[in-house]
Amino acid sequence: MADEIAEAPAVFARAATQPVTGITLEGIRAIYTIARGSSDAAANILSYEVMRETGLPMTSLPPSVFSVGKGVAMAGALALVISQSGASDDLVRSAKGAREKGARVAAIVNAAGSKVQAEADMTLPIGAGPELAVPATKTVIGSIAAGMALLSHLVPAYAPRAAASAAVVAALAGRDHPQTRALVAALLRASHVYVIGRDTGYGAAQELALKLKETCALHAEAYSSSEVLHGPLQLATNPLLVLILDTESPEVQDSLNTAEARFRAVGAPVFRLRPSEAGATGLTPAAAAAALLYLAYPLVLATARALGHDPDRPETLSKVTQTT
């Protein structure tokens, strides 16, 4: 896992700038993502970026719509299937089912020649090389980058910003978040963790919460800063660590500031992570989310080790999850 985290910036740079052909937005009225776990978090990150740049609705469909149910009408839709292995039966059936129901299907996969790829109209390779640790890291960051490459092709005006962001993320290699020691110490004291973000930062929060659960066996939940001030705020009256993932987009600052102030007011320990704290500036929101994950993954790794867990092989998990 440590080696794979270290490879992530270079993976991002390659995947974000790869050439893309074979698909356009002509006739497309909506985009649907189909993914599970970490790939679904990457899809969430991409959905905000794609909607902002294209003006098209983009949302997630559960794979069970196709793997258990009879599918839904997909004419005029682009289905984006994200799967690191490309081997999960439900995602294979979803790619096939979406195409049979009228969608154009694009796949973001890491494993070349996968079954998902065989059912897709076009494929964007993550190109991360073998990922041996069960918790996905470099392939998650690479999935975000591959989605940005697709968006660069669909919206050419986005391409220069994506390329500039790829260079900035590549330069993060070997850098740590300056609060790493304090953050790990706080995680070791925590029984419950809220991970909060907004826009693309919300998808990053989902991924970090998942990693804390699967790698450290910590109870962690992800919330949008726009929702957490309702019922979930009450849980802060119990011991609760709050991690805020701030992509530094101007549009999300008021929401994140309000959430931070409210949690501090009830006495919760709060850490706010920003890419600029590690020297990464000028990023697109999706690239900022990827940078935050690169900076956060070592926190998960260090915490898992300190708690006596094997971060590469969590006891109850396998690399390819077979679900329906």
TrEMBL record:
Presence of keyword Signal: no
Domain SIS as annotated: residue spans: 21-178, 183-324
SUPFAM superfamilies named among the record's database cross-references: SIS domain (SSF53697)
Swiss-Prot/TrEMBL GO biological process terms: carbohydrate derivative metabolic process
GO molecular function, a single term: carbohydrate derivative binding
Family matches, as Pfam families: SIS
InterPro entries recorded: GlmS/AgaS_SIS, GlmS/FrlB_SIS, SIS_dom, SIS_dom_sf
Keyword Nucleotide-binding appears in the UniProt entry: no
Swiss-Prot/TrEMBL keywords: Aminotransferase, Repeat, Transferase
Entry coiled-coil feature ranges: none
Protein name: SIS domain-containing protein
Naturally occurring in which organism (per UniProt): Neotabrizicola shimadae
